[in-house]
Protein: Protein RER1
Organism: Chauna torquata
Amino acid sequence: MSEGDSIGESVHGKPSVIYRFFTRLGQIYQSWLDKSTPYTAVRWIVTLGLSFIYMIRVYLLQGWYIVTYALGIYHLNLFIAFLSPKVDPSLMEDSDDGPSLPTRQNEEFRPFIRRLPEFKFWHSATKGILVAMACTFFEAFNVPVFWPILVMYFIMLFCITMKRQIKHMIKYRYIPFTHGKRKYKGKEDVGKTFAS
């Protein structure tokens, strides 16, 4: 291999300007993602705002329904992965290696670990909306379809998928949502002190 054959290197062995530019761009992007991690509500509000802008755009342009349908299917798949446990209890039923969800009250509590964490769910959903928004700028993606059929098919698909997911939750007794840690009350302090 001769000098300059590796990816991103120029003839003199230093990284090329383009490689350095995209590396720096990736670092800035990751920095912004890292800074946004603790602000869950703000992130989701921005994503809902983007989806609202996207829906207004589709409504005003009266087209790109197939792109919207694909975005809906993508978001449904993300949501199902968000609701699912990382280790499927139906696969772990027969084997005793690895974590499993408790099925009896006297079993040890193991926290619910999602297959798709919340941050990755938000990040993928936001990227999906931005890609769909970009697709609305190209006429090639404006496939003529009868949109009420797509809406009915999506509603049916959503109901069938959620019914299956809820049955799975009931069968293996897990709830994907928790509201913080359980708080235990100790003895109430009456406020009287003893003076010696």
